[in-house]
Structures are given as C-alpha cells and as structure tokens.
Amino acid sequence: MDEHAVLLEQIAEEMRATARWTGRAQLSQRVAAALAKVRRAAFVPTGSAQAAYANRPLPIGHGQTISQPFIVALMTELLDLKPDDNVLEVGTGSGYQAAVLAELARDVCSIEVIPELARAAAAALAQQGYGNVVLRTGDGGLGWPERAPFDAIIVTAAAPNIPPALIEQLRSGGVMVIPVGPRHGDQELVLLRKNAAGEVTQRNVLPVAFVPLTGG
User: Fold this and answer.
1) What pLDDT band is residue 51 in, cutting at 50, 70 and 90?
2) 215: in domain
3) Beta-carbon neighbour count of residue 184 at 10 Å?
4) 179 preceded by cis ω (within 30°)?
5) What's the structural domain count of the chain?
6) Under 8 Å between Cβ of 89 and 118
7) Which residue from 174, 12, 149, 194 is spatially nearest to 82, judged by alpha carbons?
8) Residue 213 domain flag
9) How far apart (Å, rounded) are the C-alpha atoms in residues 58 and 31?
C-alpha cells in the first residue's frame, strides 16, 4: 500500500474514532474520491515533500501551515457539497484545501492575506489543472461580496468570533465550517447553518488548533 493509500486509511480510522462528536462515521464517496485524487505532495514546500502524506499539519512558511489531512477531510465532509455549489474558502494557504473543494463544487473562491502564499498557491493549482478556483489577496474576514452569496464557506484559520460579513454572504440553506477561539487558546470547530428564513444555528464539532485568522 503506497503512502497516499495509507493516509486515506488513517483518515477513515479517525472518522470512525470521532464519530460520536462529529456525527460522521465515514466520508461520503465523493469526498473520499476527491482526497484520493488530489496530490498533497503538489501543495507542500520542497523541503517537506517526504512528509507530504503524513497525517499532520506541515509548515508552509510565513508562520502558516497546511492543515492535517484528517481535518481537511472532516471540514470538507461537513460542508455536504453539491456539484453546482459556489464555495468560499478563507485562507488559501498552500492551495491544497482549495484543490479538494474544486473536485466537489462548481466554483471555488479563495482568499489569502499573504501575497507570497497566494502566488504560490495559484501556481500550484494551475499546474494541477484546477481552472475552477479563483483567488484574491486580502482580508478573508470581509469575505468576497462580489462573488456572494455562497452555498458553503470554509475558514482555515481560527477567528475569535465568526465574522459577520461571512454570515451575511452565506446563502439561505448554506453551511459554514470555521474554527473559533483565541490565538494559542481553546478553539472549537464550529458548524454553522443558515436556514431558509435566514436564521443561524451553530454547534461545536471538535476541539482544534489552527493558526489565527489575520486581516490585511
């Protein structure tokens, strides 16, 4: 079994182990297929290539990380993406999460506050053939009003509170997954839903540890 296949099995084991909190004992076939297809090795720095398929976060420079594959899988699973969805990602990072989203949704709009990371991610995504991802550099907490509303929003850095602009740009019936909590403090992965009437409900899914969400 190659290292990519081993990683997918480790993710499956963690899904089963955390099911009583997440409500998801396994990945959907679509999410599992996306994770199997996307080459994580294409989105890590050259110096980390040997650890590309380790089930842990990896540094990508500028104080940022590429998230643990299990967390990428879980957050993606919680979005319940459909093929025609318009998705916002806050925190492009290396571009790996955007690539996974691009396998599942029609359009992926991704915002990165660090210009150097945005350029590297754009190059990696283009090299891997992901033409349905558009990127911009800026403050992700403000969202992307021109591209709203979004069927799903995923935030890959921890915010002390859920940014109101993101809630506003979420379509009625939409879903947001976001880590919430202080820098270096207790953080929770939050699943937020907006119903047809525009009312918002949320629940904590799992304790997590993310780099902080920063503005421009």
Assistant:
1) confident
2) no
3) 10
4) no
5) 1
6) no
7) 174
8) no
9) 22
pLDDT band (50, 70, 90) for residue 35: very high
Span 9-30, mean pLDDT? 96
In a domain, residue 191? The reply is yes
Extended beta strands in 53-142, E state? 58-61, 64-66, 86-90, 107-112, 133-137
Answer whether residue 214 is part of any domain: no
Return the biggest CA–CA distance within the chain: 49
CA-to-CA distance for 122 and 189, rounded, in angstroms? 27
Residue type, position 44, single letter:
V
Residue 97, H or E segment: helix 96-102
- Residue recorded with tokens 């550099």: 137
pLDDT band at residue 117 using 50, 70 and 90 as cut-offs: very high
Question: What CATH number is attached to the domain comprising 191?
Answer: 3.40.50.150
Domain ranges, residue 192: 3-208
Active site residues: 67
> 69, 65, 52: which is closest to 13 by C-alpha?
69
Residue 215 confidence (pLDDT): 61
How long is the chain?
A: 216
